[in-house]
Amino acid sequence: MKAAVLVSPRTAPGRFLQIEEVPRPEPQAGYVLLRVLACGVCRTDLHIAEGDLPPVRPQLIPGHQIVGEVADGATAELPLGSRAGVSWIGGVDGDCWYCHHNMENLCDHPTFTGYTVNGGYAEYALARADFCFPLPDGFDNVHVAPLLCAGIIGFRSLRVAGVEPGERVGLYGFGSSASLAIAVLQSWKCEVYVATRGENHRQTAVSLGATWVGKEDERPPAKLDRAITFAPSGKVVVSALSALRKGGVVAINAIHLDQMPAFDYDKLLWGERQIRSVANMTRQDARDFLAIAQQLRIHPQVVAFPLQDANQALLAVKEETERGSAVIVP
Fold first, then answer.
1. Can you name the residues that pair with 112 across neighbouring β-strands?
2. pLDDT per residue over 40-60, tens digit each?
3. Model confidence pTM above 0.70
4. Residue 222 in 3-state DSSP?
5. Ordered alpha helix ranges (H), 82-164
6. How far apart are CA 247 and CA 239, in angstroms?
7. Under 8 Å between Cβ of 246 and 266
8. What is the DSSP letter of 113?
9. Quick check: 75 and 98 in contact, CB under 8 A?
């Protein structure tokens, strides 16, 4: 089969991946073999390719927003020929303290799709059956792919921040994940305040009905109950913190963050404000979000790339393409 293979994580931009013929994965007990129909491109893929996340395999097929057709290993929930989705968490040990306390996203020995095991930048992918999700009707292959990480992790960020209906919520950065989270917030009757550096991103936020939109260093006109940061920047976290009311929460939706600058504790954190990180997701997050996405008919903007243009898809993420989420279609 054809696959986009990452050989060295610090190759020059534009040449991260090599398109190669590789053996098709062999079916095994407890796994489903998926014929890949589409695979979303995530900023985490770029962090892996650029070496921000340390390499764990000498060769790797990235990609963890997989939409596939069950080709082998069918189950009652995933019959042969049905569509299944795979996300970043590809498995947990089920035996550590965190798994026993309903915190599988913090498992001590997790499997990460497209990082510790091969992912979906290929014609076929192998995935644990209990970490595959039946996909709702009403979404085509390309448009459902971004929901499988950008959508789910954005939804988990709202949970980690403790968002309640009717609150004032700030979104710092307005890429794929934030643009999907805004629909959920609006269904909860929240006021949404967006601060982001890209003019096109600001225009998108306006078109999606944000209460207020400003530049990344502008302060919203009202104190926020919650804020979620989507940019991998410590400076942005401090900006979000400065906009919070007492008792408010900032949730950092980033697997990698540059250095956070020093800030004034007395002014910005005192008053029982909180900073929380968002780490991975649980299977329940995925099920809950996919149900909400179907109910709200969330329809992400996407731009599709053929498999042979996987490097261009990664560059689109690096350049924060304004056309929507990048999706690879084998």
1. 89
2. 999 899 889 988 888 889 899
3. yes
4. coil
5. 97-100, 141-144, 150-161
6. 16
7. no
8. B
9. no
